[in-house]
Amino acid sequence: MTKYIINGGNRLNGEVSISGAKNAAVAIIPAALLVDGACRIENVPKIIDVTLQLEILRELGAHIRLLNSTTVEVNGDYIAEAKVPYELMRKIRASYYLIGALLGRYHHAEVAMPGGCNFGGIRPIDQHIKGFKALGAQVEIREGGYICADAPDGLTGAHIYFDVVSVGATINIMLAAVLARGQTILENCAKEPHIVDLANFLNSMGADVKGAGTDVIKIRGVRRLRGGMYSIIPDQIEAGTFMAAVAACGGQVLVKNIIPKHLECITAKLKEMGVEVTEYDDSVLVTRSGRLRKTNLKTLPYPGFPTDMQPQLTTALCLADGTSIITEGVWDTRYRYTEELARMGASIHVDGKIAVIEGVRELTAAPVRAFDLRAGAAMVIAGLAAKGVTQVEQVTNIERGYENLVEKFVSLGADMYRSEIPETEAAMGAAQ
Ligand code: EPU
Q1: Does residue 94 line the site of ligand 1, with CB under 6 A?
Q2: pTM for the full model?
Q3: How far apart are CA 152 and CA 6, in angstroms?
C-alpha cells in the first residue's frame, strides 16, 4: 500500500511543467486502432490509466513500442480478437472507447462494462449505445456484463442528437463514425479540448471530421486512416490542480506547457477569489499573497467550470473568507471527499448537488483517503495547506491520472513523500 505523507504549511514557489492530457490520451490511444500501420503518439502522460490502456491494446494483439518516456508507437493491424475481458476493463473506465474503435475498424466489439472513477453514483452509457445503434450496429448486453456490438456489413453514417452532453458518447461515436460509409452528423456534442484533440489526431491520420469544439460535429467517412505522428495537448485539469494548490497554500508558481485558453474558466474563478493570474503564450503565473475571498460556482460542460476541478477548488474555498456555494451540474453526486475535509476542520454542508462552505482560518492534518482521482488531488491540496502531518491513503486513485504529482509538488517547496507500506503491515494496522 502506498501513502503520501505531507507535512503541510509551506508556500509553493517555482515552476511546474504540465504533462499530456489524460482524457485526451485515453481517447487517442484506442483511436490508434483505427489507423492502418503504426502511428506515433507524443506527450503521452506517464499515468496508470495510460499504462492499463496500453496493456489492454497489447492483450488484444496490437503492437506497442515505447520510444521514450512520453512517446508511444501503436500498430493496430494485428488485432486477433475484438474481445476485451472484464479483468482488464474493470480497472479503467475510458476503455469503453475500445467499443467505438473496434466496431469502427473491425465491425465487431465485445467489451466488458467499464470500471474507473466511482463518485458513488451510476455512470450510464445509454447515449453511446444509442449512437452505435444509429450507425447500424446491433448492440446487446450479454452474460457477464459484456456489451456486444456487431455490424457485419460495416457502419453507415447517421444523424444523431445526443440527449445529454456527454464527453464519452461524443468521443465513442466519433471513433465509430470515421470509417463508416457516408456522413455522420452529431448534435448536442461535448466541446471539451480533448474532443478537439481527438478530432485533430483523426484528421492528421486522414479522417474528415469538422466542427469539433462546437455543438455539431460532421464526419465524412473515409475508407482508411494512415499512420502518422501526433502530440497530445497539455492537461487542463492537472494545470488547474496546481493553480488551486497555489490558491490554497499561497506563493507564486509559473505553470508551464499549457494552453491558457483551456484554463479561462478556472482562471476567472481564481481571480474572483483574489488570486493573481497572469497569462503568457504557453504558461500562467499564479500568485496568492493575501486572504482568499469566497465565490460561488457551478460545474458545467466545457466551456463552463469543469467538474474535474470541483474538489480542488472546493478545498481552496474552505480557507476563504466568507460563505461559498458550489453546485455540481454534471454528476449526480461528487462530494464524498467533503467528509474527509470535514475531518480536517473544514466547514461544509452538502445537500444533493449543492455544497455550502463556511471558510475557516486553517485546516488541521488528519489521515484521509483519496476516494477517486480528483478527490485525491483535493486531499493533497488540503494536506499541503493544513497544519501538521497529513497521510493520504488509496493514492493509486491519484496516480491513475497525475504524472509525478509528488515530485512536482516537492520541486515547488512542498514537504511530502511517498511511503510504501508492506501489505502485511498495512493489513495488521487495519485489523487493530
Ligand atoms: N451521461 C448519460 N448517458 C450517457 C453518458 C453520460 O446520462 O450515455 C451523463 C452522465 O451521467 C453525466 C453526464 O452525462 O451526468 C456527463 O458524463 P460524460 O459522459 O460527459 O462523462 P464521461 O465521458 O464518463 C468524462 C471524463 C470525466 C469527466 C466527465 C465530465 C474521461 C475518461 N472522463 O467522463 O473525467 O468528469 O467527462 O467532464 O474523459 C476525471 O478525469 O477525473 C473524470 C472523471
Answers
A1: yes
A2: 0.96
A3: 55
CB 118 within 8 A of CB 372: yes
With beta carbons less than 8 A apart as the criterion, state whether 90 and 71 touch.
no
The sign of the CA dihedral 422, 404, 168, 184 is negative
376 lines ligand 1 (CB under 6 A): no
Q: Which three cell numbers stand for residue 386?
A: 493544513
Q: Alpha-carbon distance 189 to 164, whole Å?
A: 8
User: Which of the residues 117, 189, 249, 265 is marked catalytic?
Assistant: 117
Residue to mutate, 49, 97, 113, 123, ligand 1, most ligand atoms under 8 Å from C-beta: 123
pLDDT tens-digit map of 379-390? 999 999 999 999
Residues of the chain below pLDDT 50: 430-432
What would the DSSP string read from start to end of 103-152?
A: HHHHSEEEEEPP-----SS----HHHHHHHHHTT-EEEEETTTEEEEE-T
Closest ligand 1 atom to Cα of 128 = 8
What angle do helix axes 22-31 and 167-177 make, rounded to 10 degrees? 20
The reply to whether 39 belongs to the active site is no
Please enumerate in sequence order all residues whose Cβ is within 8 A of that of 425, keeping only pairs 6 or more positions apart, or say none.
none
Instruction: For residue 210, give the nearest of 197, 199, 221 by alpha carbon.
Output: 199
Q: What's the 93 CA to ligand 1 centre distance in angstroms?
A: 10
Q: What is the pLDDT of residues 117-175, one digit of tens each?
A: 566 556 788 999 999 999 999 999 888 778 899 999 999 999 999 999 999 999 999 99
How close is the Cα of 166 to the center of ligand 1, in Å?
A: 6
- Give 134-148 pLDDT, tens digit per residue: 999 999 988 877 889
User: What is the residue with the minimal CA distance to atom 19 of ligand 1?
Assistant: 166
